[in-house]
Amino acid sequence: MTSSNLSPHADRFFASDPAQREIARRLYHLIQDEPIISPHGHTDPAWFAENDFFKNATDFLLVPDHYILRMLYSQGVKLNDLGVAPKDGSASAKPRDAWRLFAEHYHLFRGTPCRIWMDHVFATVFEIDKKLTAETADFYYDTITDTLQTEAFRPRALLDKFNVAFLATTEGALDPLPHHKKIIADGWGKRVVTTFRPDDVLDPDNPNFVTNVKKLGEITGEDTSTWAGYLSGLVARRAYFREHGATATDHGHPTAATANLSLSDITALFEICLSGKNTKAESELFRAQMLTEMAKMSLADGMTMQIHPGAYRNHNATLFKDFGPDKGADIPYRVTYTEHLKPLLDVVGNETDLTIILFTLDESSYARELAPLAGHYPCLKLGPPWWFHDSLEGMKRFREQTTESAGFYNTAGFNDDTRALLSIPARHDLARRMDCRFLAQLVSEHRLDEEEAAELALDLTVNLARKAYHLD
Amino acid sequence: MTSSNLSPHADRFFASDPAQREIARRLYHLIQDEPIISPHGHTDPAWFAENDFFKNATDFLLVPDHYILRMLYSQGVKLNDLGVAPKDGSASAKPRDAWRLFAEHYHLFRGTPCRIWMDHVFATVFEIDKKLTAETADFYYDTITDTLQTEAFRPRALLDKFNVAFLATTEGALDPLPHHKKIIADGWGKRVVTTFRPDDVLDPDNPNFVTNVKKLGEITGEDTSTWAGYLSGLVARRAYFREHGATATDHGHPTAATANLSLSDITALFEICLSGKNTKAESELFRAQMLTEMAKMSLADGMTMQIHPGAYRNHNATLFKDFGPDKGADIPYRVTYTEHLKPLLDVVGNETDLTIILFTLDESSYARELAPLAGHYPCLKLGPPWWFHDSLEGMKRFREQTTESAGFYNTAGFNDDTRALLSIPARHDLARRMDCRFLAQLVSEHRLDEEEAAELALDLTVNLARKAYHLD
Amino acid sequence: MTSSNLSPHADRFFASDPAQREIARRLYHLIQDEPIISPHGHTDPAWFAENDFFKNATDFLLVPDHYILRMLYSQGVKLNDLGVAPKDGSASAKPRDAWRLFAEHYHLFRGTPCRIWMDHVFATVFEIDKKLTAETADFYYDTITDTLQTEAFRPRALLDKFNVAFLATTEGALDPLPHHKKIIADGWGKRVVTTFRPDDVLDPDNPNFVTNVKKLGEITGEDTSTWAGYLSGLVARRAYFREHGATATDHGHPTAATANLSLSDITALFEICLSGKNTKAESELFRAQMLTEMAKMSLADGMTMQIHPGAYRNHNATLFKDFGPDKGADIPYRVTYTEHLKPLLDVVGNETDLTIILFTLDESSYARELAPLAGHYPCLKLGPPWWFHDSLEGMKRFREQTTESAGFYNTAGFNDDTRALLSIPARHDLARRMDCRFLAQLVSEHRLDEEEAAELALDLTVNLARKAYHLD
């Protein structure tokens, strides 16, 4: 039998050592009420444009959350039993039944950040005081679903409730950004902005690449069948995104490979890629060149560049066929930075007006490659622990393995990278607590004065993110 | 001068922080007396079949223990001086002299799990209360050797003494399993079982591969010169092992490469391998295909599949020539899972009735590849920290680096993987203490309730192993 | 506002847990006054030969320190503004201005070992009691510069002041060693010695390789246009270095690749390399063979061999062009040991009279490859955490990830690897404190007796270095 009580502890995630905990508590107290800066994420801009009510607990909290889906799937739960609709149109479970199934399996999340985020949402956002179990499943479903129909839970109200000062969504290069137009028209344009994610027009392995490049031409009026026209088209779309608030671009390439080809080589390669006859190696080389092109454009237009490499997308072929992408079947692999980034760094590495934020799913690169690179090149900053590593132990390893070579000031603050709107405060709170914990350890071990730690706590919470994403 | 006292502390291996230690103690108290489940190991089945006395301290405890041999060898001690017999038949030290040499060098093991296991055996099994030193060497030798001649130290009595409820040994595919026949005949068949380890008939790099495949045909009555007959022969041997208690197979391939070739391709490759003219790459591809075949057979016959990749076997050429395998000269290297396992997972990854347990010697794969894979695919579970990582710090890293993505319930409990019978309780006790320590940390940091931690402690100690190896 | 007080805490770097801290304090008390053994470093032998005063704070402490330069550069500070002279002869900042710029950016070093070393130097060596800030910059500059002009701060006096019993510098194979001649003549030859670093005559990728090999012939009177003569020339230079006190060689190859070619193959390869028409792969193979040749020569002449692989040198092409090497733009990458060292180990791996010390910049190799290798091969020892990992967390990870497989006695003690003379005591003190902290943790968790920990503390501080570098 387990206790039925749900109440996040005031000292949660701090070290148990009393000396450290006391310092962490003091530091956290200084920054806990700072506004949330969320410069990288995947919430749906339609929410903030339309400002409609969310439907129910399952459709809002369960079905879109690939962290939850993957864990349940790993233990034999079928996705359609969780309310996920198969692509062939066959039936999936009703929302309440899916929620019950989730509740029955909630013990699987013990020890995971997912459990921490969810409990934080349940306790803090919905003010539920008993744990999610098979017995409380219906109570949860009803409480959450009912609460979602109240004014305070409309999307814009939630941003107020959560004290979100800045939120970036992410859209593809060809997106006409209708929702951001509406958001701007409604006066929310300083608070909710887009991010330029051009993978679908940069990646020849995308099955729609040729069509997408053609569309890019149509939208921008450039002749994208030529290399020069293609670049102009990209420049135009970047400008369009900037007009809709974007301060950053994002690049989810399979690797961190970059290249610096001659004009004749890249022109020839571009033609091959447009012909659709490119090999895998040619696709990789083209993507590599395009990272360098994006860096050059960022230098010109001032957009911060984010590189997110290292995910083997849709590793589970069957699941991808049946349900499509983003169902928890992306798996990390080894990533190389030192050799792979050199061609790009040869071009823009010494620029002090350029910000390139590096992320990784391969923690072995933290101390070996990323911290030494960011601790040297003026243009480089380290993004926060990403995805599978956006967790207590992941954040601990990030600080332990990057701080000594890169310092704190070559990092870019926290970002939540989430589509799960309700968990944004939970994720930022976790990051703030873990940063305060790390700083408290340094103070308790006489590696840093508490006064300096206090300055750092504020820097890590708001200032570094503002600076890295050019928010001021 | 060092203290001569030997007495394992009641709180050993728990964190020194009083809050954590108190919780760890409570959790450990709940599970310390649970029976030992040992589903993967390398004890000699002849021991349990014949139930004879063990000979002396050196031949039983020192000579077969490659952890001890490797450390002493690394510091210039010769193997024949430790009583290890060279293959050329030349002399090796007498048991008592070898033991004295071991005792003189016992300080080399400070800080190693080997020291912890040995001290546990000395203090708990032989009730010796002073440390092993040059001075106490003879006392140790005599005490141990004498005690081994008592009824309570016959192999079957030891299983009772140690509260071992289940013990699996490991045998090659061609082994007629005479000892397990005797064990079954004597009524011990539910307690001591075999494991199917077919490397010698799956690996074309084995110098006896062609002969072994021929023998497989002779034993099973199948025509193993054809691909179909070879597969049938393997199916037959798996059935034979199951009849002798096996619930699992084990695969010690150099890498985790898998393949999913067409029938014509694998038929052609099989012929090349049988001709003995295969290249290294063809051997690797054949082994890769055979992992997939084994997975398909496991799906059919219900045997849990264990994959143990990443050891460079017999790295020390001279030592291998002079003394043969398993003398401590196997060295790990980098292992790839995400790309390498995909062909196998494309075939069976989504099966909920199949259990494949992954092990690694490359800890950099824990957070990057293994936890994400096991946290998604229904068929995958993570084996405990293996070999060089079956240690305090190794276990700590395993939990820290896998729990947040895979959870606890995608792990397979502990196994001791040992041929050192007397150290089995020491190894399980260490694992139980380290699991309780990890859980206590989560509780003390308010990441988990103590009631849930108590459930988990029992799950990690017995339930997960029982489930992963289909013991119920 | 931050506190202006500067005073290193007596318990700094020990764990905050009172039980651990108390034990660490006791262990540290036993060894804190032991003399400094510095068997690997890069101080300038001219200092100890000439024994002149150092010039000023900036030229001595700032300009040569690539740890400081890289961090400041990463945040947009220009090297010439720090007083670093460009190769084209253009102006750089005056010393006082450079120092002020450093002081203004001192907060960037929070959480880095650099900050810890510098504060230790300021507080302990110069007895300054307020922090370095923009406000105290001039006070610092004047205090340090003035103090450097006193007798107690001449180089030889500093060695006395710092209780340095042994210090090795590092010189190229062709260096005539004039400073060491003077040092020996002045009776300091047992205390300050050279180290044989032959990269420039072993590496065909060195632009001066062919000239250097020719010079090797001229200096030694050997015909280095032949393989045999080349080897004889190397033997002669090793003897020359030994006569000037060297007990060790050092090898900074890009990778840990080794080879064991036939005489005809290496002869042919040598000729290709001397022709200057070698490919990158041939350079790599030649270097690989030369590591094995060096190991054989070490076996013959008794010099300890140090292998430092894994740095991508001068990664920043622009900075290298403008300012030359060693400006903080060397970046680590992945290193392979298990496969790469095998050819060398096949030749000398089992020699008990040979010492080869392995270093790494790729921490993922600690537990996976280096500890298992050193825990088996008699000739191998592990060097201390190197460069980016010569830090609190780096030292912690080193012990945690190597001790359980290699033990303490297969490690080679600490070395500071520095050209920053004043920070030598800071670095050794940090290492001693971190070792005592690690030992204290083992004691507090009942993994080691305190009496044994005390023996180990002394071994790690002096005995293991003396043994590994053959200083007795």
Write the layout of secondary structure elements.
3 copies of one chain form a homotrimer.
Chain A: H1 18-31, E1 36-38, H2 45-50, H3 57-62, H4 66-74, H5 95-104, H6 113-125, H7 137-148, H8 155-161, E2 164-168, E3 171-172, H9 178-185, E4 192-193, E5 196-197, H10 199-202, H11 209-220, H12 227-243, E6 248-251, H13 263-275, H14 280-301, E7 304-307, E8 311-312, H15 317-323, E9 331-332, H16 342-348, E10 356-358, H17 364-374, E11 380-382, H18 392-406, H19 424-444, H20 450-468
Parallel strand pairs in A: 1-2, 2-4, 3-5, 6-7, 7-10, 10-11
Antiparallel strand pairs in A: 8-9
Helix pairs in contact in A: 1-19, 1-20, 6-19, 11-12, 13-14, 14-16, 17-18, 18-19, 19-20
Task: Note down, in words, how this protein is organized.
The structure is a homotrimer of 472-residue chains. With 472 residues, chain A is of the alpha/beta class. Chain A has two domains: 18-52 and 156-468, Alpha-Beta Barrel (TIM Barrel), CATH 3.20.20.140; 53-153, uronate isomerase, domain 2, chain A. Chain A is 49% helix and 7% strand. Chain A is built from 20 helices and eleven strands. In chain A, the strands form four sheets. Chain A has a four-stranded parallel β-sheet, covered by helices on one side. The radius of gyration of chain A is 23 Å and the shape is globular. The model of chain A has no long low-confidence stretch (mean pLDDT 97). Chains in contact: A-B, A-C, B-C. Chains A and C meet through helix 16, helix 17, helix 18, helix 19 and helix 20 of A and helix 4, helix 15, strand 9 and helix 18 of C.
